Amino acid sequence: MSETVFRGLSRPFSNRAVLLLIVLLALLILGFYSVTDISRLEHNQVLDGADYVGYAVCHRITDRSFSIAGRQLPLCVRCTGMYLGVALTFIILGLAGRRRWSMLPPLRVMLVLIALIGFMAIDGINSYSHFFPNLPHAYEPRNWLRLITGMGAGLTMGIILFPAVAQSLWQNQELKASVGNLRELGAICLLALLAV
User: Fold this and answer.
1) What gap in Å lies between CA 137 and CA 171, rounded to an integer?
2) CA distance 130 to 145
3) Which pLDDT does position 44 carry in this prediction?
4) Mean pLDDT per segment of 10 residues, for the chain of length 196 residues?
5) Within 13 Å of residue 183, how many CA atoms lie on the same side as its CB?
6) Is-contact 90 21, C-beta < 8 A?
7) What's the rounded Cα separation, in Å, for the pair 129 and 38?
8) Which residue among 72, 142, 162, 174 is buried most deeply as judged by most CB within 10 Å?
9) pTM (2 d.p.)
10) Per-position DSSP letters for 32-83, written without gaps between them
11) Which residues have C-beta within 8 Å of that of residue 14, sequence separation ≥ 6?
């Protein structure tokens, strides 16, 4: 992201922040591979623990979840998109130097965020209607569509929660919107699509 996209940055992304993010991601991937053996994914204590957490927050329907080497992931596709969207929003806004920015986005941005939630609701209703063969449905649901609409809802939740977290954590807040305009929201959505 350039400084022209995120106006009002306290400082542009530094090489150190990007390097730190890459190192943390590499450590996370190496950590995953150190505790899992792909050939024995059926009985792995770490993944079994992740399954228990997944059962607490997600329906985990097999057809609506991703699988790796025959092992179902702990969350369904839509929940994966939602949690990934929230995490991605916090990372982007944190790296952009907006940790103390405590205001909600302007109305135009909020309307787009509400539309993202609406898209997920429409896709969820259509997807649910497939449980009942006699109910009409608009289109055949797909996991990639669940992932994208879940990501949109996750971005919305992250952008709305970020100012609430800033208000809770910081005594000296900056009264600026975490996402100030549609251009900034577009940049975040573009990064989210790249993550998908």
Assistant:
1) 50
2) 15
3) 66
4) 45 60 72 56 67 76 78 84 92 88 93 96 90 84 91 95 90 89 92 87
5) 8
6) no
7) 35
8) 162
9) 0.73
10) HHHH--GGGTTS-HHHHHHHHHHHHH----GGGEEEETTEEEEEEHHHHHHH
11) none
Q: Residue holding tokens 């539309």?
A: 115
Tokens 């998109």 map to which residue? 81
Query: What one-character-per-residue DSSP string does the chain give?
Result: --TTTSTT-SSPPPHHHHHHHHHHHHHHHHHHHHH--GGGTTS-HHHHHHHHHHHHH----GGGEEEETTEEEEEEHHHHHHHHHHHHHHHHHHHTT-TTEEEPPPHHHHHHHHHHHHHHHHHHHHHHHTTSTTS--SS---HHHHHHHHHHHHHHHHHHHHHHHHHHH-SS-EEEESS-SHHHHHHHHHHHHHH-
